Amino acid sequence: MLELIFVALFLGFITILFVKRTTSNIALEADAEQTRNDSEIESLRQMSPQAFERMLVELLEGMNMRIVEIHWVNEEEIDILAHNPAPILGGDYIIHGILVPEGDFVNSIRVIGLSDTVRAERALKGILISTGYFTEEVQKYSEGAPMELINVAKLREILHAHDMAWPGAD
User: Fold this and answer.
1) What number of H helices and E strands is found in the chain?
2) 91-98 and 125-130 as β-strands: parallel, antiparallel, unpaired?
């Protein structure tokens, strides 16, 4: 009887692992697939780190924010500390930009890291800007935190709203 319980538990864990691995990013993969042949999205996804930094700085300065500090975490991630001088809405913002390789998604670890940094630095808001898409679990970790998540499709909308061009844009 004890062997039967262990076998059932083992099969249950295997089933859970299998289901988790096969279904977690279906919606995200569909979003990515919808924009696969979109030339603007593709040009944003293929930006160099230098072009990504210039675009972020230009966008923030276009929103009347003052860049305080820029720091590359690694070859794909940049941190920007910006200050909004507006009297009521003003304060420090931490912007974390991520160049996401094709086929990858931004997971919750990066969101949790930004959230912790925003709290530790007592910034007004954290903004995570990605040239990719977020995994489904990211929404759980960003709720309630003073954060905004911007995927590549939303980034394109923001750039269009500010009449900004970027390398490779038609």
Assistant:
1) 7, 7
2) parallel
Give the number of other CB atoms < 10 A from CB of residue 104.
15
Please report, in tens digits, the pLDDT of each residue of the chain (170 residues total): 667 676 666 666 566 655 444 434 444 545 665 666 678 888 888 899 999 999 999 999 999 999 999 999 999 999 999 999 998 889 999 999 999 987 788 988 898 889 888 988 889 999 999 999 988 888 776 666 688 999 999 999 999 998 887 766 65
How many alpha carbons lie under 13 Å from residue 51 in its C-beta half-sphere? 14
- Taking CB atoms within 8 Å and a gap of at least 24, the contacts of 143-152 are 145/115, 145/118, 146/118, 147/111, 147/114, 147/115, 147/118, 149/111, 151/106, 152/35, 152/41, 152/44, 152/45, 152/100
Q: Helix or strand or coil: residue 78?
A: strand
Per-domain residue ranges of the chain: 1-34, 35-161
Q: CATH for 35-161?
A: 3.40.1350.10
Token output for 154: 């939303």
| Residue 167 token pair | 């390398």
